[in-house]
Amino acid sequence: TATIAGQIALLQDIIKALPNNQQFPLPLFALSLAGIIIVICKYRRDRRQLSLGLLPLLVALSFYIFFIALIKQTNLRHLIPLTMMLGIYSGIAIDVALNKAKGFASVALKIAVTAVFIYSFYFSLSVSLNLTNDLRYSAEQWMKKTIAPGSVIEYYSYFHYLPRFPEGTVSYRVTARPFDLEKRNPDYIVLTSHYYPRFIRKLEYGEEDGRVKSTKKQQSFAESDMSQYMPKLLNGETDYELIKKFTREKTWFKQITHA
């Protein structure tokens, strides 16, 4: 919320989320804090250098104040600009530590830093692998082989949640009066789990420590015809039945479902 309690809760969420961000793990977060302290201590008597040294931190703070604090969200994608700026201080801390470490300490530090970067790279690589192994590609290939040209495809979600439909097919989106299914009589219906669950979720209300769950959209979904239609479609209470379902399989890389 926009209250003081809400802003404090938002800041707490950010502080908790940053070290839990898999592309910016706790060691890098700790190093970034150390880097900030190093810059302040090193240039505390030189205002010009101190201002330049703290510029990335000021950019991160301005992003927080003028964006995150206004939209009041802590989605991981909103943390990217913060991690980019704070990462600069991680580099400063690592540089100072490597220059001061000698002998075994230097070797141990290099191994530790390498391990942290490998760990971070693994999760960053997972993002790319999740995109290249997106189930929509599998669904697209299956539809190309199965759905004949001229077939009519009905869908309900935003198009960017869906696989590309085969050339020669006719597709349309239904957003209202879904119960006229027999009149529309499509050959296929394509659903995505990124969209239809919003019509079958239970409404959650309440406020706790300044945090309020967004219920405006939930309410609109719950009051729409889709909230009555979707359970019937999913439970097989129409003339349509499930012929193909694509689900994620376990992989060696981390599966990411958000953005």
How would you characterize this protein structure?
With 259 residues, this protein is mainly alpha-helical. 55% of the residues lie in helices and 6% in strands. The protein is built from ten helices and five strands. Helix 5 (80-100) runs antiparallel to helix 6. The longest helix has 30 residues, at 103-132. The two termini are 23 Å apart. 11% of the residues are buried.
**Sheet bearing the most strands, described?**
3 strands, parallel
Shape: elongated
What spatial order of strands do you see in the largest sheet? Answer: 2-1-3
Helix/strand class: mainly alpha
**Unreliable residue stretches:** none
List the helices and strands and how they pair.
Blueprint: H1 4-20, H2 26-42, H3 47-53, H4 55-71, H5 80-100, H6 103-132, H7 135-146, E1 152-155, E2 170-173, H8 181-184, E3 188-190, E4 207-208, E5 211-212, H9 216-223, H10 226-234
Parallel strand pairs: 1-2, 1-3
Antiparallel strand pairs: 4-5
Helix pairs in contact: 2-5, 4-5, 5-6
Keywords:
259 residues; mainly alpha
Summarize the model shown.
This protein has 259 residues and is mainly α. The protein has 10 helices and 5 strands, in the order αααααααββαβββαα. A 3-stranded parallel sheet has the order 2-1-3, with no helix packed on it. A two-stranded antiparallel ribbon has the order 4-5.
